[in-house]
Amino acid sequence: MLAESWEIVDLHTIIYHIREGVRWQDVAPVNGREFVAADVTNYIDWRIQADREQSGDETVYSDQEDWLAARADETSAQAWVAEIEELGVELWSAVSPNESYWHAPDKYTLIYKTYNEKFNNVTAGSGFLIWPHELWESYPEEDLNDWDKQCGTGPYYVVDHVSESSMTFERNPNYFKSDPLHPENQLPYVQTVIALAIPDQSTYMAAIRTHKIDYASMGLSDAQTLLRSNPELLYDEFLPPTSNVTFVRNDIPPFDDVRVRQAMMLALDHEAIADELYDGHATILTWPIMPQWRFSYTPLEELPESARKLYEYHPDEAKQLMIDAGYPNGFKTSIYSWTYPSRVESMLIIKEYLAEIDIDVTVVPMQGSEYVSLLLNTVWLEGDPFEHMMLDFFNNSQEYYPFSNYLGGVAEWETGRGSGLNLARVDDQEFRDLFAVDGKNYYGILDEMERYALIKALNVKA
């Protein structure tokens, strides 16, 4: 919102045009001054310097010569260093050379540039914390997270906080947005908002039921219980920023055979699972891109037949794919996840369906610490114990996350360091090649990658 427009120049560069007239909240020591592009670069430079001081100024590369020697193309690396030095941008961060930078050539222009081509440049400025320079110039760093030191550009600012009880917000009279239906009306309309912390679930539900609070969010089961007792309540359904995904190892048998992964998809009755597990309140296609990303999400009914069919129930075709892949008698495997009831129920449903194509699944619910330990071992240690399946959340709160996570994870595996975001160990050159295109076709690329990931069943979505 702080940028009114942007230009994707190439896979290295994006230019943001900052909205004029946006003001910081009118609290000391910032006092309502205008938000400008330099606020972003000032904060990033200060953060780099603070991180360096905290780390004792230890860097991976001791000087520019070491860093240049480590680059495959030394000429382009030297040009990058020269460019940064000419702009006066900080080159060295706390632990590694900066291979990206932000630059503000004027009050309302902000340039983000990277040394390497990055497909996700378009989301580089999609959301991160920015503090005005007056804060770190006025307070010690350890106090900057205190509630009474906060200052932003949003519709409300904090005026009171009671630990583990409540937080009170007042309307920002300098907020830059107006009601789109009534432009003469400045937002927000509500003067005061009080956010209550109610840790006891029964008390929380009772407060909603008796209309003591105006807004609340909750899971499906609690919402259904509440609506049965209080049908007068207004509600809206929304998707979380994560998907339940069954990760299967794409790099080892039997899951390295795309026919096995496709057979597993065809063996699952997704419509029945939505009805059984979520009482019909479910969106079947939420991976790899969530429906709220409307510019890049393709609804299930609009997918090509080869992708759409994998979300249909075809157990006979699944059995034939298993035979074609060389597993006429199936195989044994295990599925791991948390002990949360919904996770366990999901795993048992998957087990039941896969048994129809002779895949014998052992369900392994794990306590939180035990599961995290397995996850860490999976990611960081040699002798990988994860050779089966893992039901986990996949963060696709940004459009490019599933794709950049796969590619970033693959790159880290090649250097001996695994990524917890690429649990399926996807290493597919054709999938990688989809990144090597003009960044201006961002949404077209995402569309192609979504279809490719679905057709190849890179993960088993259930």
UniProtKB/TrEMBL annotation:
<keyword id="KW-0732">Signal</keyword>
<dbReference type="InterPro" id="IPR000914">
    <property type="entry name" value="SBP_5_dom"/>
</dbReference>
<dbReference type="GO" id="GO:0015833">
    <property type="term" value="P:peptide transport"/>
</dbReference>
<dbReference type="GO" id="GO:0043190">
    <property type="term" value="C:ATP-binding cassette (ABC) transporter complex"/>
</dbReference>
<dbReference type="Pfam" id="PF00496">
    <property type="entry name" value="SBP_bac_5"/>
</dbReference>
<dbReference type="GO" id="GO:0042597">
    <property type="term" value="C:periplasmic space"/>
</dbReference>
<dbReference type="InterPro" id="IPR039424">
    <property type="entry name" value="SBP_5"/>
</dbReference>
<dbReference type="GO" id="GO:1904680">
    <property type="term" value="F:peptide transmembrane transporter activity"/>
</dbReference>
<feature type="domain" description="Solute-binding protein family 5">
    <location>
        <begin position="2"/>
        <end position="371"/>
    </location>
</feature>
<keyword id="KW-0813">Transport</keyword>
<protein>
    <recommendedName>
        <fullName>Solute-binding protein family 5 domain-containing protein</fullName>
    </recommendedName>
</protein>
<comment type="similarity">
    <text>Belongs to the bacterial solute-binding protein 5 family.</text>
</comment>
<dbReference type="InterPro" id="IPR030678">
    <property type="entry name" value="Peptide/Ni-bd"/>
</dbReference>
